[in-house]
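User: For a benchmark we're assembling, each entry needs the component sequences followed by a predicted structure for the full assembly. Here are entry 17's components. Please fill in the structure.
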Amino acid sequence: MFTGLSAFPLTPVSAAGFDERGFIRLLARITAAGADSIGVLGSTGCYAYFTRKQRRHIAEVAKAHAGEIPIMVCVGAVSTDKVLRLAEDAQAAGAQALLLPPVSYQPLYEEEVFELFSTLSQHVSVPVCLYDNPRTTGFTFSDALYARIASLPFIRSVKMPGLSSSPAEVQARIRQLKALLPATMTLGISGDASAGVGLNAGCDVWYSVCGGLFPQAAKAITDAAQQNDTARVRQLSEQLNPLWALFSKHGGSIRVMAAAAGVLGLTAADCLPRPLRPLSARDTEEVATVIRHLGLQ
Amino acid sequence: MFTGLSAFPLTPVSAAGFDERGFIRLLARITAAGADSIGVLGSTGCYAYFTRKQRRHIAEVAKAHAGEIPIMVCVGAVSTDKVLRLAEDAQAAGAQALLLPPVSYQPLYEEEVFELFSTLSQHVSVPVCLYDNPRTTGFTFSDALYARIASLPFIRSVKMPGLSSSPAEVQARIRQLKALLPATMTLGISGDASAGVGLNAGCDVWYSVCGGLFPQAAKAITDAAQQNDTARVRQLSEQLNPLWALFSKHGGSIRVMAAAAGVLGLTAADCLPRPLRPLSARDTEEVATVIRHLGLQ
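Assistant: Structure for entry 17:
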């Protein structure tokens, strides 16, 4: 399941809490587009803002509305005990894979992160994707730690942070990682702006925020990548540059995608959990203009 | 309550979970030394690693064993909803004050952090201390934001991160903050290595990790500060330089204080919640040597 398009939807909220109907609308778009997997409760899926009970319920709703598409559920938490409980919940809800970021409060040592992955791998019966996102977790992986964790049972993919936009640099980096890691481990690009470059450099999967809301546009890119049509991958990705520019302007993708979901009428205009605040009316208008101009729907 | 020595004990764990007996032993030392307040479930108190239910129980235990000393309970969490629930729990447990760090997952904007403090201030009936610790929260305050938050009701103190070790720089900084903030707001130094310099520069309170385990040594320093005996403050603080050096060597105070608590027989040798790991046997031996050499007990 760790190939092609893995679509990461928002988990919208309303004043009453988790917006189940809005979430189901997002899932329906992803299943209609035929994504290869769904990343439930990723960073943009706001896992860090929900309680354990909410996270279990959200995983169940995702499973019930994912059709034949496998779901991967994020089990990130500061404490190892909580990660294990979340992993039990996610598997009980029918998750076919788990996603683990080494979320930190006290800065972590490599050995502590290794032990976290090792402990999880001893308690699961589904594959696990290593989630590398220093910006949100506060932890930076070394290549040596990647390799140690990849040697553990059940570890089958890595969700990398965004890479450079230089194709030559990215190609060199992907070659290096493919040489380092076992062939059973797939490499996933995230940071949507570098997805095209990453796929053209040989990444096996796009862990895609864009695919969570605009799955058809994202699927066209991963389809082109699977046909080795590098020119088309580049062209389709560059067409979306105005969207990537908005991500960059607003400190990441989450507030932009939340605004876009509201613009499309799929969620409330304000669908982010506090303390996250929605974009201003003016910035939301800019988002609306960009998605209209790009023909995204 | 936001003056003098605020002692921040560890919240020890054992294989069975929260080590209530060990925690009570730590509290007994603090009450015997006569600290001015107790900071329950601070960073070194591992709040981020416990569930809501555990945090409520830990606050209740602290209250039951704090004697006449007021307790301040940390209510930090990624989601505003959870902060409010934790604040209700802490107040129900008898907390006389709350401590709020703007813990982030997605990086936060100033307006979002302001709204978090504003929301909490509308839901409490006890004073709140602003907890500024960029290393663990991922958020850096501006002075302008300090001032805005200080103007909210119930905000009465700021727990600053460690400052420079240059007395002149620290004096200039404290003068600047005293000019900026209302007189009702006390300034608290943390980062134990800069405590002496901070107190001599006019900080009103030491939010002290050292005071959580060695309250007599810490109280001697805040007592000297209250007598304006700057030479003695400096001397007593510099005597502890070998302890501050261990904090620096081990990426912060928490693993060192956990090792020291084990060395003193107050907790299990391994009393940290996973994924945090205890120091190695060799490093623990060095901690034992330092506390013996300093006459800490």
